[in-house]
Amino acid sequence: MTISSRQILWRFCIAMPLAALMTQQALSSNHLNCSAYAAAAMAQNDQNKMQQCGYTGKRWSSNFQGHLNWCNSVQMADLTSEDAARKKMLQVCANKTAERQKTCQNYAASAVNQQQANKAQKCGFSGGAWSENHAGHFNWCLTTNEQNSATAERDRNSMLKGCFAAQATAKENAWINACRAYAKTAVSQNKENVRRKCNFTGGSWSSNEDAHFNWCLGANSSQTAKSINFRITALKNDCMYKVCTTSRTLLKTTTSCRMVPKPG
User: Fold this and answer.
1) What percentage of residues in the chain have a pLDDT greater than 70?
2) Beta bridge pairs of residue 256
3) pLDDT in tens, 206-250
4) Which of 71, 93, 163, 190 has its CA 20 to 30 A from that of 18?
5) H helices of the chain, where?
């Protein structure tokens, strides 16, 4: 049958004075106060459970009668040794508990950061493992072992890396497709340049679709938009020729000229 934290605390508070009495009196004399010893052993095991130390065996028993019977069968030195062994083990556990709390604080902070990255990148992961509740992650960490918490943190990292890689691939594929479209547009604009005999030259005015595509891969969307608009403006405003008309009257002849787009 399990024992509640309140029961453990109540038993611990009742038994510890008895343990102190045993240490001060029973263990310092030839008289074996086995009831005090058994109560102290029970209190120490309750502390073992409360701190989640995980110690087991006859030394860590919740059986009062068992501790009492053992006490009645041994010498004072055995009682002193057994009591000291439990105290030492509990101290080791207390030190580990403090270290575990620090580890779990770091675990919880990492878990919150991972969830924030999940939201920022819109990966869409959900469930108890994906939460910004620092206290929730901390408390869960304290109730499990180091292997489970390390695995949970590693799994989230792995999932995030997979999400980021997939997004990077999708972004790269989208840019590749955009560059293919850019290259076709650039070639089409140059065809108009040739057809209308605009005589524009240079890298921007090329019929090599691969060259435009490769340039685009190393550029960004702002640069490609600027390049397309440059050719649009040139074809609209700079591919012109002069058209002149002459009118005659009895007194004079007048010629007027204007620039018009080259046909194509």
Assistant:
1) 88
2) 245
3) 999 999 999 999 999 999 999 999 999 999 999 988 778 888 887
4) 93
5) 5-24, 34-50, 64-71, 76-120, 134-143, 146-195, 209-217, 221-233
The model's pTM: 0.55
Rounded Cα gap, residues 262 and 264, in angstroms: 6
Helix axes 5-24, 76-120, angle to 10 degrees: 150
- Classify the C-alpha dihedral 99-103-109-112 as positive or negative: negative
Q: Are 177 and 213 in contact (CB under 8 A)?
A: no
| Cβ-contact 110, 143 below 8 angstroms | no
Phi-psi region of 49 (alpha: psi -120 to 50; beta: other; left: phi over 0): alpha
CA angle 35, 41, 42 (to 5 degrees): 90
Q: Is the pLDDT at 14 greater than 80, yes or no? A: no
User: Is 164 in contact with 117 (CB distance < 8 Å)?
Assistant: no
Using the CB atoms, write b or e for 170-203: b if 16+ within 10 Å. eeeeebeeebeebbebbbebbebbeebebebeee
Contact 203, 183 (CB under 8 A): no
State the number of CA atoms in the 13 A half-sphere of 213 facing the CB: 9
111, two tokens: 């878990």
Other Cβ atoms closer than 10 A to 83: 19
Adjacent-strand bridge partners of 261? 240
Mapped onto helix, strand or coil, the DSSP state of residue 126 is: coil
